[in-house]
Amino acid sequence: MEKRTVLVSGASIAGPALAFWLHRFGFDVTIVERAEELRLGGQNIDVRDEAQKVVQLMGLEDEIRAANTGELGIRFVDVNNHTLAEFPKTNGGFGTAELEILRGDLAQVFFNATKDNIPYIFGDQILALVEAEDKVNVTFKNSTPRSFDLVIAADGIRSSTRKLIFGDEPVIKYIGVYCSYLTIPRIDSDTSWAYWYNAPESRVLNLRPDNVGTTRASFSFLSPEKGYEKLSLQEQKGILKQKFADAGWQAPRLLQGLEESKDVYFDSISQVKAPRWTNGRCAMVGDAAYCPTPMSGMGASLSIVGAYVLAGELSRHQNHQDAFEAYEKLMRPYVEDIQNLPPGVPWLAHPKTKFGIKVFNTVLGIASSKLVKKIAKLFGGKGKKEIKERIQLPYYNK
């Protein structure tokens, strides 16, 4: 039987993960990526829970663990850098995960695992999709038009392929926070801990270690939706300078880093809400389909699990429509659970007043105290408590 052909748009996390499984299940896969080469920048991300099981099945857990950032946990600090609360690394749902890795490093792991079997077309993108009875005819910006059995969008929250498939049907839901990420030089006071600092007027500064001798930093602030993500980078930098000029702690260092860093990224923190993830012979996966926001800590994990399930269901069903239906049925409750952010997020983590910050840090200090941890152990039973599974992963054997 002739192999079914699949075009995947996007070469970050979801795309290569999907291609890995599709190839294993006997599909003929091609990946197209707008960037001229693999994008290796980005901040710390987690591989948690069910996603960790998927990378174990891929045989890639050891490589991911070897590329770990070395982050020991997170410390909440005051303006004088005094630690007010400390949460060591855990495989639970808060703070530093067991598998903590830079986004670019995870992309590299997945690329290395697929590059010998799957053709990558860099520096190109899909301009048009026309579905025929048994194929999708694809027009590229630079390459010769081709036809595929299926086309999958895996090109992120601002996916252009998604718009070609679904138009304006999916909604990008802003949750009230703007955030900017950058890489800055490491200094002597930086450690293997992540640091979180709250400034009045709902502002947060964050520092995180990496495994390449630099420090990953971020600004975030609450704001009504103002379209800042559409401005030029220089305009965005101007907003950050104005917002954080008097923030204290290491704000001057981070603001200086804005001028020197080559990977400044500014965006509104949003979720993708889509009533369906498939249309005809086309589908979407990862952030393009159901971005949960970085505040969930589950974006990469959701992409990895979604890629596994989509590829697995396509391997189980000869009819792509049956596969797509099974994919949505299995993934939809899981996605909705993750997108259902805890009450008060993001407002509780961005107190507006000095008093609110004091209350926030006091609560965290109590939660992180040795006494509370001892009490939790008394009521938690012996041994490691298993995390409740939010999705029952099928085993796709083919």
Automatic annotation (TrEMBL):
Q: Which GO terms describe its molecular function?
A: monooxygenase activity
Can you name this protein?
A: FAD-dependent monooxygenase
Q: Which PANTHER family does this entry report, sorted A to Z?
A: MONOOXYGENASE (PTHR46865:SF2), OXIDOREDUCTASE-RELATED (PTHR46865)
**This protein's record includes keyword Oxidoreductase:** yes
Q: Which Gene3D superfamilies match?
A: D-Amino Acid Oxidase, subunit A, domain 2 (3.30.9.10), FAD/NAD(P)-binding domain (3.50.50.60)
Keywords (A to Z) from UniProt = Monooxygenase, Oxidoreductase
Which domain of life, per UniProt?
Bacteria
Q: Which organism is it from?
A: Sphingobacterium anhuiense
Please state every residue range assigned to the domain named FAD-binding. 5-336
SUPFAM superfamilies referenced in this protein's UniProt entry, alphabetically:
FAD/NAD(P)-binding domain
